[in-house]
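FORM 12-B: Structure-to-Sequence Request
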């Protein structure tokens, strides 16, 4: 889950950041989210459609407007496009604890690493994994500083969800007292309307949420409910599950488009098992990669891989 805390940062690739910040903190076990910055994408000349005539021809009978089949100018060069995949929380400030007593940070790191691998395999060679250490509050500021100093073109923070403590129920797992809530499940996508590039942040958030939905996943709907108390957030798109979390530091203070993904609920006993599987990590990573590709090159939405 996203917590209103500040986490110290350490880049997986030190070459992207001259100073590695360190500090200490503890995790907040309540729902959380991240921040967004502003960054202009590098323009790229439109790629030639030569050699793809068969693909265009195959699409024509589907009723697409011929003008829609023309390749649009690429919005970026994937090989140079810098994406920061942020591992939510730290080893010292682990975030939420799952129904089976596994720290959220463990889930976040495994999924973020898989997303990094798939993005690089998909041609986004400049993808960087951002791992922070230390205590929560001070590290959040340094996490944002690291992203801003890179500089990145897109910031994506990876988290796993829980619920407020008042909604937790008790159970015993492997002889140890544990907590769960099977009431809610699903992914959610957050942006900040206070981000310097909110419109672009929202654009990517919409693409990501649509990909998640297209993969058969459902979004978490509890954030609009009064029972969530101070963790209640406005739903910007009721079809796909995009919410605003305006004051979240990592979404508000980053100077580039920024989005936070709550990949699923680890306090829900059934969903925790799914989130711990390589299969689910592959599904989500594929959705993220497709969303980034479409965000970078609008032709992807029409043609798919060329």
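FORM 12-B RESPONSE
SEQUENCE OUT:
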């Amino acid at each position: 889950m996203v917590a209103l805390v500040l986490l110290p940062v350490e880049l997986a690739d030190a070459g992207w950041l001259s100073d590695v910040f360190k500090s200490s903190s503890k995790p907040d076990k309540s729902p959380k989210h991240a921040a967004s910055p502003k960054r202009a994408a590098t323009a790229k000349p439109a790629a030639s459609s030569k050699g793809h005539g068969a693909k265009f021809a195959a699409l024509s009978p589907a009723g697409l407007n011929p003008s829609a089949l023309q390749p649009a100018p690429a919005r970026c060069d994937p090989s140079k496009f810098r994406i920061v995949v942020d591992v939510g929380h730290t080893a010292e400030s682990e975030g939420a604890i799952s129904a089976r007593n596994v720290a959220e940070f463990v889930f976040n790191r495994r999924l973020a690493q898989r997303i990094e691998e798939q993005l690089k395999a998909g041609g986004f060679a400049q993808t960087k994994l951002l791992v922070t250490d230390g205590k929560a509050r001070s590290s959040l500021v340094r996490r944002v500083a690291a992203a801003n100093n890179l500089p990145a073109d897109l910031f994506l923070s990876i988290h796993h969800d829980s619920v407020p403590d008042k909604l937790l129920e008790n159970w015993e797992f492997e002889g140890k007292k544990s907590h769960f809530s099977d009431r809610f499940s699903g992914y959610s996508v957050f942006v900040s309307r206070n981000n310097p590039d909110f419109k672009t942040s929202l654009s990517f958030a919409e693409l990501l949420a649509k990909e998640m939905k297209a993969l058969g996943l459902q979004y978490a709907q509890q954030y609009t409910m009064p029972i969530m108390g101070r963790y209640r957030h406005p739903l910007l798109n009721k079809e796909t599950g995009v919410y605003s979390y305006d004051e979240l530091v990592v979404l508000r203070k980053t100077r580039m488009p920024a989005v936070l993904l709550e990949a699923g609920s680890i306090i829900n006993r059934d969903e925790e098992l799914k989130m711990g599987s390589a299969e689910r990590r592959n599904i989500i990573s594929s959705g993220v990669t497709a969303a980034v590709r479409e965000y970078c090159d609008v032709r992807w939405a029409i043609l798919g891989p060329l």
